């Protein structure tokens, strides 16, 4: 059986009892980064053999993982943080297992996109998750343009190295909409900055961003909320 195990996105206290039980009973743990997963397993005193399953070796590692599944072994798939397959490896493995009639289950847990959405103060009743946009200016603007008229709240992931360029292109395509930028979620210095895209751009031009960000942008139906107050929430999380 294949189990997709969500792991903490920062605070290790967010691990679930089911996740721990699944990892403890697995025959193999398939990991995006065996070093990071090794630290997680060590923290909870779990010893299991790991199989590397990264974006750049999925095709090569897939047959090996499938051999274990065909043999009736329990395999737990984890990524560096959050839910497998969400902007992380896992899709190909899930598809292959389903195609062969191998049972697949998921142990739910932390996901940065949902946490950022609920903290953003923007409409949550309907949203579109777009993951990481293209790295270059032109393709990124075309990527944004697909959703320029979408009524749904938009959610993106972005690297600190491209965040300023992301915001500049977002303003060009969407206009100066209300948005939120979430960073270090569940960690000691969890931060959520809220305001118009121009406010976020000025902030991150003055204060170089660090760590991966989740950006939430109001959809075309939420433009009436554009006069929302520009604020920053900074929390210390145990």
Walk me through the structure.
It is found in: Cytoplasm. One of its GO terms (molecular function) is rRNA (cytosine-2'-O-)-methyltransferase activity. By secondary structure, the protein is an alpha/beta fold. It folds into two domains: 2-107, Cobalt-precorrin-4 Transmethylase, domain 1 (3-Layer(aba) Sandwich), CATH 3.40.1010; 112-236, 2-Layer Sandwich (Methyltransferase, Cobalt-precorrin-4 Transmethylase, Domain 2). It has eight helices and eleven strands. It has helices spanning 17-25, 34-43, 58-70, 91-99, 112-120, 137-145, 163-174, 197-206; strands at residues 2-5, 28-31, 50-52, 75-78, 104-107, 127-131, 153-158, 178-183, 189-196, 213-217, 231-236. The protein has a six-stranded mixed sheet. Mean pLDDT is 93; it is low at 224-228.
């Amino acid at each position: 059986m294949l189990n997709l195990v969500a792991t903490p996105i920062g605070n290790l206290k967010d691990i679930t009892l089911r996740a721990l039980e699944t990892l403890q009973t697995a025959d193999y743990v398939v990991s995006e980064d065996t070093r990071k997963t090794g630290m997680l397993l060590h923290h909870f005193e779990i010893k299991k053999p790991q199989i590397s399953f990264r974006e750049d070796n999925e095709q090569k590692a897939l047959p090996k993982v499938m051999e274990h599944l065909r043999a009736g072994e329990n395999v737990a798939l984890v990524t560096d943080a959050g839910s497998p397959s969400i902007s992380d490896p896992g899709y190909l493995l899930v598809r292959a297992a389903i195609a062969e009639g191998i049972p697949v289950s998921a142990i739910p847990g932390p996901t940065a996109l949902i946490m950022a959405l609920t903290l953003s103060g923007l409409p949550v009743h309907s949203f579109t998750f777009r993951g990481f946009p293209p790295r270059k200016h032109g393709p990124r603007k075309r990527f944004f343009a697909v959703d320029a008229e979408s009524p749904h709240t938009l959610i993106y992931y972005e690297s600190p190295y491209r965040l300023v360029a992301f915001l500049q292109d977002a303003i060009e395509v969407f206009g100066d909409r209300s948005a939120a930028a979430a960073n270090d979620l569940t960690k000691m210095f969890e931060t959520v900055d809220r305001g118009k895209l121009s406010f976020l751009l000025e902030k991150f031009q003055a204060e170089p961003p660090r760590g991966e960000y989740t950006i939430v942008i109001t959809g075309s139906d939420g433009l009436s909320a554009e006069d929302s107050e520009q604020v920053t929430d900074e929390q210390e999380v145990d």
